[in-house]
Write a structure and sequence with these properties.
The protein is an alpha/beta fold and 327 residues long. Helices cover 40% and strands 18% of the residues. It has two domains: 199 residues, Rossmann fold; 105 residues, UDP-galactose 4-epimerase, domain 1 (Alpha-Beta Complex), CATH 3.90.25. It contains eleven helices and 14 strands. Strand 1, helix 1 and strand 2 form a beta-alpha-beta unit. The chain is globular, with a radius of gyration of 19 Å. The protein starts with a strand and ends with a helix.
Length: 327
């Protein structure tokens, strides 16, 4: 297949481009490099540009016969979305509609959307399955849910089929050590903990130790980046084979507490580091764990790296290469 990956220079997108390419597919990456890195696109063709640029999209779709489009070009920081909702609605919703309109115009019928479990808001039960009510509590979650609703309408009106994948925490790095996570600023727990282990940070903070969890710290669902990408590939194959539109929840099947992540990081790295205890943050639920049984049943998804130690070990191998990729 020939696939357009928007946001393919970012953390998830770059891993997806590699997986598609190694599976024998022809890949074109479109990324404006606002949060990505051109040197992370190690496979296929790279085009610098924005999904809001309809002229560029027309050029791309005229010159290439794409079998499908994968979308990783959203803004993803919850706190920033609260401070700058206009930026999030413009990029995550309005710009995505520009992309979808171009797909409709050129008859491209298969769309994979990197969604989020933030569309569910505060969990009413755990683990969260697809039947859980979607009541987002921040602009980020609202923007992703809006796109899911747009996709349902585009399917009904134009026959554009889509698979949306909702997950909490992508983690880890390419098992070959070629790619990894590099956000500025970094907001994700696993790389922050490993930065403390490597000495790039002075310490790591735990926000709240009195939650209703086994050790009092928040429990989250961490999914290895390669397992996440494999689900996206299965979703694409499902659509290209004539499958219907669907939204799936995706996780590794169990949650890990903040203390567990820190303890495993100390074990994997062999390094001790300072851990500070801080007050709870607003809006942090005690537990967030996804139920992936429908994805496994319907698309045959089988995660390869479910244990936390492997996830952190791959991320640590990438962190140790910091001097090679810091620029």
């Amino acid at each position: 297949m020939k696939i357009l990956v928007v946001g393919g220079a970012g953390y998830i997108g770059s891993h997806m481009v590699k997986m598609l390419s190694l599976a024998g597919h022809d890949v074109v990456t479109l990324d404006n490099l606002s949060n990505g890195y051109e040197d992370a696109v190690k496979y296929g063709e790279f085009v610098k540009g924005d999904i809001a640029d309809s002229e560029l999209l027309n050029e791309l779709f005229s010159d290439n016969k794409f079998d499908g489009v994968m979308h990783f070009a959203s803004y993803i920081q919850v706190g920033e979305s609260v401070e700058k909702p206009s930026m999030y609605y413009k990029n995550n919703v309005t710009n995505t509609q520009v992309l979808l309109d171009a797909m409709v115009e050129y008859g491209i019928k298969s769309f994979i959307f990197s969604s989020t479990a933030a569309t569910f808001g505060e969990p009413e039960y755990i683990p969260i399955d697809e039947a859980h009510p979607q009541k987002p509590i921040n602009p980020y979650g609202h923007s992703k849910l809006m796109v899911e609703q747009i996709l349902a309408d585009f399917d009904h009106a134009y026959g554009l089929k889509s698979v949306s994948l909702r997950y909490f925490n992508a983690a880890g790095a390419d098992a070959d050590g070629e790619l990894g996570e590099r956000h500025i600023p970094e907001t994700h727990l696993v790389p922050l903990v490993l930065q403390a282990a490597s000495g790039r940070r002075d310490n790591i903070a735990i926000f709240g130790t009195d939650y209703d969890t086994p050790d009092g710290t928040c429990v989250r669902d961490y999914i290895h980046i390669n397992d996440l990408c494999s689900a996206h590939l299965l979703g694409l194959e499902h659509l290209v084979a004539g499958g219907d539109s669907k939204a799936y929840n995706m996780g590794n099947g169990q949650g890990y507490s903040i203390k567990e992540v820190i303890d495993v990081a100390k074990k994997v790295t062999g390094n001790d580091f300072e851990v500070k205890l801080a007050e709870r943050r607003d809006g942090d639920p005690a537990k967030l764990v996804a139920d992936s049984s429908l994805l496994q049943k319907e698309l045959g998804w089988a995660p390869q790296y479910t244990d936390l130690e492997t996830i952190i070990r791959h991320a640590w191998e990438w962190e140790q290469k910091y001097d090679e990729w810091k620029n």
